[in-house]
Records
---
Amino acid sequence: MPKPLLVIGNRNYSSWSLRAWLALGAAGLECDTQLLVLDTPQFRTEVRRYSRAARVPVLLDGELCIWDSLAIAEYAAERTGQGWPRAVKARAVARAVSAEMHSGFATLRNLWPMNIRARDRHVAATPALQADIARIDELWTDCRTQYGAQGPWLFGEYSIADAFFAPVVCRFATYGTVGLGPASLDYVAATLAGSALREWSAMAAAETAVIEHEEVGRVP
Ligand SMILES: N[C@@H](CCC(=O)N[C@@H](CS)C(=O)NCC(=O)O)C(=O)O
């Protein structure tokens, strides 16, 4: 049976693509990938061959088309029975944490566009940005304290919640870790050392397309 196909954007810039790809790995669902270069006329034409929502990621599995990162993660978890923490309460909290990421942190996503290759970027702190950072620090610290004893991840073992926060970790590597406490700093280090993210980052480093900052704001 052919593997599902995950249609993604530039690995350097497409944070939603990274989430879906890591979530498929967390669930143990193998897929092939097809990259469309963001912010090009070809992207706008080709993405519509896969999804009328005209955004990436898109997962295609036979006739089935799933056009949203969280729905892709849930589908992968249903297919394999893996990806979320095993304990019911931890699983419920992991879903809440992932949903909060999926629908929130708009200021951080706008002011700190993901750019995996970039380091030492400085963006003036605003109260709204500081509030997003404070909430992320609180979330990570709570998860690590309450559920993280069995490993370095938010819920101990690697889960879809870690996949959802990986692009946020990449942003801290780019824009600095001011505002993070010790548990969050350890979590950032563990995430950056993870093999799947390193594999994706190496491919991001090899990409040549550059998207200007103002435009990247549209592809958080
Ligand atoms: N809610 C969607 C967001 C997807 C999204 O915004 N994708 C961006 C790339 S990271 C995109 O396709 N941008 C292309 C465009 O806006 O033209 C998800 O979770 O998958």
---
Amino acid sequence: MEPLLELRQLSVTFATNYLSIPVVRGVDLQVGQGEIIGLVGESGCGKSVTCMAAMGLLDDNVRLGGEVHWKNELVDPQNDVSMSRLRGREIAMIFQDPMSALNPVQTIGKQLIEAIRVTAKTRLNRKTLRNKAVELLRDVGIPDPEKRLKTYPHQLSGGLSQRVMIAMMLAGEPDLLIADEPTTALDVTVQAQIMDLLRDLRDKRGMSIILVTHDLGVVAEVCDRMVVMYCGRVIETGTVQTVFNRPHHPYTSGLLASLPRVDGEDDELTPIPGVVPQPHEFGAGCDFATRCPRVSERCYAEFPDLKSSESKHKFACFSPFSAEYEELEV
Ligand SMILES: Nc1ncnc2c1ncn2[C@@H]1O[C@H](COP(=O)(O)OP(=O)(O)OP(=O)(O)O)[C@@H](O)[C@H]1O
Ligand SMILES: [Mg+2]
């Protein structure tokens, strides 16, 4: 499958006059058409910065490295002209907090119509714009869409606001939606509805989605593949099934072990000891070394390349769990 979006060795460094801080370090990521990719990892590991860098949403003081390819063409995320052609029309992004992303002094209708107008390929008259707005609200499951056009954001619940945000992002009929923790501000039942909606949009429109989340349960349920990041690097990636059943990197394995289970086994959760190093503390070796139960001398000196056990499952570790799995098989 041809990738829609491909990041090759993407790196992001925040620089001031005195110091430069590497935050994303050589990320490779591919998103195929109609795929839902879960991007996971502890707070501060660079998930949002990776997405924002690919969309060209970071400030000018940021140093970008590596390559971003969109539909097999190299794009320059720091070139505003070329990115403004992509943003909204081909790639759209929704953020964590819908309440602050909507304009509080304009009606939903006005904001939605504006989103449709600016992303439309041709000039549309008022009636067509309005009809499209109603259709989009209906698509994202908002009841009584005609009436909703006249409401203001503060009159909507969190779940409805997030649906409106998604409707606005769909206005340009993007091929890829980047959803950065779209449900963390919402309660669990609404969260489940929004996830169903995203999956539905993929099924009906063939849209690809990058879903940034802390919630591994959500990843297991809605994603096809997952990418696990740690300290600005991808440390494991593969299909959701493979990574959940056979995590090869001790960090991924630790993340999964720290999840509560509903089947009552293992009542106690197993936390990962230690703390995540901050970007200014990053060294030459594996950043997980100080917390890793399988650490060896080598891990402090060099960073392991992303190795592949089969073509789609990759992990960056000198001492992965693969040997144990092989033993299980005999
Ligand atoms: N504008 C900025 N200037 C300097 N450092 C930044 C900036 N934005 C983010 N960072 C740093 O970059 C690192 C990665 O941040 P990022 O927001 O990508 O993390 P994240 O994985 O999305 O975390 P979370 O799960 O909490 O959203 C963090 O150490 C953060 O402090
Ligand atoms: Mg984030």
